[in-house]
């Protein structure tokens, strides 16, 4: 077990002077206040939290992009039942296009 300054189960709580085992969910602020102390004591954990936080942020950003920009997602079936039909030939809906310039494409579909 790594001791980071939190009271152990058999020790008494510093806030209310009772046994720590009787109320484990009351003092989350102790844990929140000990996180910076953990970073200072264990500097090798900083890259781990940095990359895990960055990965979570990027995955949530991509999920939000898919939900908002993808033509396959229909949020309003009543007013826009087929959103993929409203895309023009010059609209870019792919995430990344290597050598495609969508503004120079010609219209090759009929209007309905």
Report on the structure:
With 112 residues, the chain is an all-alpha fold. Helices cover 34% and strands 0% of the residues. It is built from 2 helices and no strands. The protein is elongated.
List keywords for this structure.
single chain; 112 residues; mainly alpha; 2 helices; 0% strand; elongated
Give the secondary structure arrangement, pairings included.
Blueprint: H1 28-41, H2 46-69
Give the helix level as a range of percent: 25-40%
Which stretches are poorly predicted, pLDDT < 50 over at least 5 residues? 6-10
Largest sheet: none
Output the helix-strand order.
HH
Strand content: under 5%
Outline type: elongated
Tally of contiguous helical segments: 2
Structural class: mainly alpha
Please provide a brief summary of the model.
The protein has 112 residues and is mainly α. It contains two helices and no strands.
């Amino acid at each position: 077990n790594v001791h980071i300054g939190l009271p152990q189960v058999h020790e008494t709580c510093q806030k209310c002077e009772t046994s720590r085992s009787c109320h484990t969910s009351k003092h989350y602020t102790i844990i929140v206040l000990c996180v910076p102390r953990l970073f200072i004591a264990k500097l090798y954990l900083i890259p781990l939290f940095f990359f895990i936080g960055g990965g979570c942020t990027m995955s949530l950003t991509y999920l939000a992009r898919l939900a908002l920009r993808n033509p396959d997602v229909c949020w309003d079936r009543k007013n826009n039942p087929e959103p993929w039909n409203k895309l023009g030939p010059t609209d870019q809906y792919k995430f990344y296009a290597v050598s495609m310039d969508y503004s120079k494409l010609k219209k090759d579909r009929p209007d309905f």
